[in-house]
Design a protein that fits this description.
heterodimer, A: alpha/beta, Rossmann fold, 6-stranded mixed sheet, 20% strand, globular, B: alpha/beta, 4-stranded antiparallel sheet, 11 helices, 10 strands, 23% strand
């Protein structure tokens, strides 16, 4: 099977006249993402995460290297405007600030904005909007005014607007950063459901380690390069490397690491509250 | 002793219109002097309205706000002085940077207060030290700084006014763990060095548990809980019922308790959990 996204030797620098030597924001990055994957991207502020997301969606064009989406080289000069539209249709993006992403005065009009622009027949738009709102649990708010919703609700409307365009992949660029704990939970649950039930490929950029722990795979970026790539339990084993890169590990993983350093035998570091609790429990019962 | 006291304070958005909403409902709280107080509550619970009461950006419709025992609205013309005494760092303060250099931006507040030119440099350098800025950064444009640095420059601008109370609304939102750590270390150093009163608004229970002495919990425009952080974080159920969380480590301890492991209440940092479990698992 061909990977859905394949990136080879990707390099990108922002034009900065003040700097004589170009500083690469993305430096020779290669990876593959399969259809249906749920990948979190971690990295400090300025490590190149958002730039990478914008490259995948052709908002930015790389200096060198190739990006294949569904087998097609999107960096090829022969790409037509229609081809680019096709890429943007298949890879949707949800950004950080929900207030900057909503355009209409009624929730369902906002969700319809994307498919309308794609020239979808109106009957089908109706069905897509209803389904998209259902997918994020916002059906009952279809006739509400977006600006009166909570942050988490607004963000779910923004996600519905992307789903209505039926992308195969959605990139979330710190989509929970501005939300309160309930809003974050609502949005995280929607993201996980889209991935597990609809099979939508998810690339989720975040600063919250506990959120990244819920992905199937984590890519860690540092100064424009990938330094770690693997399942969460493997990534969070590397606590000191993560800390050197300005990151951390979830609190319960940190606890297990400290207990292990103290000579208490726990088989591995869990990444979720449940895993860590089970491990501690197992240790207690085996001791008796 | 309370530095700032709110007495029966109520406030309405859109007062006198058909859309009138009661944003603050009969608030009675004291902000203890020389301590770090955390203010938590879900979006729309009234936190931001409340902090705008602290420095007189909003005037209560009912009740009084007392700073060192004096009603800040007793002389409305002097309200500007209150804003210098109670420094408010708003959300995403980096959007408010505007000067040519970081130095000038930090100097803007004290200059506006009427601090003599001769004293400005001292104040700017002192504030820059608190946020860990190297000298050469002060002569850069604030727009050439990284996200975390911009945030710290904006906080330094308030510190340079030497406020008696420093209020920060979500100071670490959107920053990576290292950036969060740096901001919070700066705030702690500032508070310890001068014994200042600090109020922090945040959604991160982990950070609040680590930093604060006291916690105030708001819900639907009212004070739901207020007290020592031990008292507040032991009440997990009440916190979750109003859309808040307890720190992840507390959730872990609660889960262990449900699974039959004997655990004390009031564990809310990794350090505390480690100290308890290292003996238990031995």
């Amino acid at each position: 099977m061909n990977p859905f996204i394949k990136v080879c030797g990707l390099t990108y620098s922002y034009d900065d006249e003040a700097v004589v030597k170009k500083h690469a924001v993305i430096n020779n990055v290669s990876f593959e993402i399969n259809e249906g994957d749920f990948v979190a991207v971690l990295g400090h502020n300025g490590s190149g995460k958002s730039t990478l997301a914008k490259l995948l969606n052709m908002i930015l064009v790389p200096d060198s290297g190739e990006i294949y989406v569904n087998g097609k080289n999107i960096c090829d000069d022969s790409m037509t405007d229609e081809d680019i539209l096709e890429i943007r249709k298949s890879i949707g993006m949800v950004f950080q600030n929900p207030d900057n992403q909503l355009v209409a005065t009624i929730v369902e009009d906002d969700v319809a904005f994307g498919p309308e622009n794609l020239g979808i027949p109106s009957e089908e738009i109706r069905a897509r909007v209803d389904n998209a709102l259902k997918d994020v649990g916002m059906s009952e708010f279809a006739h509400h005014e977006p600006h009166r919703l909570s942050g988490g609700q607004k963000q779910r409307v923004a996600i519905a607007g992307i789903i209505a365009m039926m992308p195969r992949c959605i990139i979330f660029d710190e989509s929970t950063a501005m939300l309160d704990p309930v809003g974050r939970k609502e949005v995280m649950n929607s993201i996980i459901r889209l991935n597990k039930e609809k099979g939508i490929t998810v690339i989720m950029i975040t600063h919250y380690m506990e959120e990244a722990a819920r992905a199937d795979r984590i890519i860690v970026m540092n100064d424009g390069s990938i330094i770690l790539d693997g399942v969460p339990s493997y990534i969070f084993e590397n606590e000191s490397l993560l800390k050197e890169c300005g990151l951390s590990v979830p609190q319960c993983t940190e606890l297990v690491h400290r207990l292990r350093e103290h000579g208490i035998c726990l088989d591995k570091a869990g990444v979720s509250i449940e895993e860590c609790a089970d491990m501690i429990l197992k240790h207690i019962t085996e001791d008796k | 002793m309370s530095k700032l006291v709110l007495e029966n304070v109520s406030f309405y958005h859109g007062r006198g219109t058909p859309y009138e909403i009661k944003a603050l409902d009969n608030i009675n709280i004291g902000i203890p002097a020389g301590k770090i107080t955390g203010l938590i509550g879900h979006t729309g619970s009234g936190k931001s309205t409340l902090v705008q009461m602290f420095n007189g950006l909003l005037e209560p419709h009912e009740g009084r706000v007392l700073l060192d025992g004096v009603d800040i609205w007793s002389q409305p013309k002097k309200i500007r002085d209150v804003r210098f005494k109670v420094g408010l760092v708003m959300q995403y303060p980096e959007y408010q940077l505007f000067e040519e250099t970081v130095f000038k931006d930090i100097a803007f507040g004290p200059l506006n207060m009427g601090v003599p030119e001769s004293e400005i440099e001292e104040r700017v350098l002192e504030a820059a030290d608190f946020v860990g800025f190297e000298r050469e950064l002060l002569y850069k444009s604030p727009f050439d700084l990284s996200g975390g640095q911009k945030r710290r420059a904006a906080i330094a601008g308030i510190i340079a006014m030497r406020p008696e109370i420093l209020v920060l609304d979500e100071p670490a939102a959107g920053l990576d763990p290292r950036g969060r750590e740096a901001i919070f270390t700066n705030i702690l150093n500032y508070q310890r060095a001068n014994g200042n009163t600090v109020v922090i608004v945040s959604h991160s229970m982990e950070d609040m548990a680590r930093l604060c002495d006291n916690i105030i919990v708001m819900s639907a425009g009212e004070i739901l809980m207020s007290g020592d952080k031990d008292e507040v974080f032991t009440q997990s159920e009440r916190l979750t019922s109003v859309g808040l969380d307890v720190p992840q480590i507390t959730q872990l301890m609660n889960l262990l308790k449900i699974k039959g492991v004997e655990c004390p209440d009031g564990i809310y940092t990794v350090e505390m959990a480690f100290e308890y479990l290292k003996n238990k698992l031995r």
